[in-house]
Each structure stands twice: as C-alpha cells, then as structure tokens.
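Subgroup meeting minutes
Present: P.N., E.W., G.H.
Scribe: E.W.

1. P.N. recapped why we're keeping a running log of single-chain structure predictions: easier to compare across weeks, and new members can see raw inputs and outputs side by side.
2. G.H. added today's entry (173 aa).
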Amino acid sequence: ALDSRGLTIVVDAAHGAAYHIAEPVLHELGADVISIGVSPNGMNINNKVGATAPDALALAVRANHADLGIALDGDADRVVMVDANGTIYDGDQLLYAIAATQHAIAPLKGVVGTLMSNLGLEKALAKLGIDFSRANVGDRYVLEQLKERNWLYGGESSGHILCLDKHSTGDGM
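Output recorded in log:
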C-alpha cells in the first residue's frame, strides 16, 4: 500500500478516463495533489501529456517541487512515474522496482515482459534469481503467460503493469 502522507504528488491524467478520479484517490491516501491533464475536450486525450508524453509531468514535478509524479495514459491502464528530480521511469523500470520489492518479501519465481522489454530488466532480474519470460507485445499476451506460468508480475515498457496479487487486469492507478 502506498503511504503518501505528507507527499506532494503531481498526477497527469492525460485528459482521459482518470481526469476526475486520479486526484481524489491520491488525496484520499493522504497526498497533497497537483493535477495536470485534467481538461478533456473530446479531442485532446494524450495530447502532449500523460504516460505517452511524460515530459510535461517531469516539468510540473520540478516546477512544483513535488516529491514525485504519476502519469496515466488516456484510458488509464498505463503508468509512468517521475521522481523529484524529474527523472522519468518507464514500465520496465517500474516492473523491476515492484519485482525486487516483492522478491525481498517472498521469493518470486518469475516476471513476464515483452519482446520490447529492455535487456537490462532481464539481466537485473537474473541477478536477483528471478526468471524472466518474454511475451508478444500487448498486455493481453503478458497476462496469458502470467496465468500459464502461475506468476504474479508482468508488464511492458509502455507502462502496462500487471500485479495479479492486486487485480486481474492492467490499471495505472
């Protein structure tokens, strides 16, 4: 669970599905929230904002001296994050952080990525003793392999992250 008490988080909803949900969820968890990408007009979804264009988030995090930033895509099933310095973390990096954290709690058998996953992810997981399997591109293929292998964590560099111990499908929030 995210303990966001006292954190300032910039959330970028990409003028999409989570434009009215992301801020209240993070606020409910105790964060001070600054929102961008929350003015959908039917034509501007993912336009220069969101997980597909995280530079706007990085700028907003630095400008507001925020602790971190969270960018969703238009349908809110992808997530990219930014640290306080404005460094952008893609899905492969987030998947590694999740897997390494969970592996420290209880050993993981493996993680599923895609044919597009960074080789660095595979090598970093191998150093932890975690198997890595590549699926075709698409979170549905990642999900298929996770179910076949009875593994819990998988994702794509685009920010589709699957944590089957938490939910059954990708959800950026």
